[in-house]
Amino acid sequence: MPRRHNAQNSLGNLLRKLRRIAGKKQCEVAELLGVHRETVSRWENDRDKPSIDMLIEFANVVSARDDQLHELIMLERNVQTRFLPWNKMKPLMEQIAEDIAETPFPAYLLDYRGRFWVINEAVADMVNMPFEEIKCLLREYKRISYLDVVFDSRLPFKGKLENYDNVARQEVARYKYINMYRRHEKFYQNTLQDAKERFGPEDYRYFKSVWYKLDETMLHELLNGIRTNVTIRNGERKQFYWLHTELIFQLGRDLFTKLWYCPHDWQPVRSIPQPVVRLWDLVNIHDHFEGEWQP
């Protein structure tokens, strides 16, 4: 008998949620699937699991979207996200770092948890801080993520955001959306607890309120566009940017995202390579992400 899950994002809870959204009773779903009502009850209480074929039939019965079916299958198989071995990733990561160096405005590379891997010097200029401080943050602040940067008042970025509430909602939505199929994984289920340990009390309370206010419908609405309006304030001066995102599919499904800030008033100029900080130049990459590599 499969071990019962207590986590909110279990297979059984998702089956129950999709059935209720479809407005169907357990007995109705059971009849359409050709099984007993007790069988559906056992699935929803994580006392048993349907086969993949049955999951596909269930998704048809409740008119689930493709992404919801994908999540059901990920939960059934208990898939855990892992990076490719570093010797296979490194050549492409170095190409991406070169691309970010040649990007003529602030740009960086994040993984699916929002952790920084590459940052160019224009980011330091945007937030008006020395590039060496960026390197120190990346080296010393354990696995710094974009959620830290947006929500932690001790870091310099939050206080410079003019349209802070909108950016905060967008970035939590982005994190939730990218990890839609990973909600059963330990790191996702521990997101709030990790934030509580990393942020100050006020920052944590705000992060928690944003986290719970965003449902799936809002995620699609917030991320419907390909760019976000961001206003950075340095003293009396304000700079307006469009924040663009691009998934890097060559490294695995939505594992890495390149983000860049294009000024509203930017005019095309010849791109000149600028300095970048690469995480693998600062830390032992294998130890830094211990337990997150494919064998």
TrEMBL record:
Pfam families: HTH_3 (PF01381). SUPFAM superfamilies: lambda repressor-like DNA-binding domains. Keywords: DNA-binding. It comes from the Bacteria. Coiled coil: none annotated. InterPro entries: Cro/C1-type_HTH, Lambda_DNA-bd_dom_sf. GO terms for molecular function: DNA binding. This is HTH cro/C1-type domain-containing protein. It comes from Candidatus Thermofonsia Clade 1 bacterium. The lineage of its organism: Bacteria, Bacillati, Chloroflexota, Candidatus Thermofontia, Candidatus Thermofonsia Clade 1.
